[in-house]
Amino acid sequence: MEEPTSGPQPQAPDTDPPVGAAPGHGEPEGSDPEGRVSEGPPEPAGPQPLGVGLTPTGHAAVDAGLARLADADHLAADGHLPVYEDVHRGLRDALAALDQRPGPPAPTATTNDLRS
Prior knowledge:
Number of helices: 2
Distance between the termini: 131 Å
Helix content: 10-25%
Radius of gyration: 35 Å
Largest sheet: none
Structural class: mainly alpha
């Protein structure tokens, strides 16, 4: 009976491509194993809507501003800022309008109004 000897053991054939090898083991770059040829790296996905629901507030100016936010869904990230600034300005104006008194403006004191 023989005893196992120490030393290198036979290895299974390597199925991974060599480091730095082109995809498909020598196939032209830009092709896949089925032989289809692509025209470079895949394009990044475009802007995608977030799908956030919109609940009407009942205030026309606020609802219009919230609806305007949907415009950002179709823009790249660098195009969002102008939309956000526009909506912010509109919401700020709607809040400022709440401070306005209905009817004629309140009388203000003038320097000519010196009644004694």
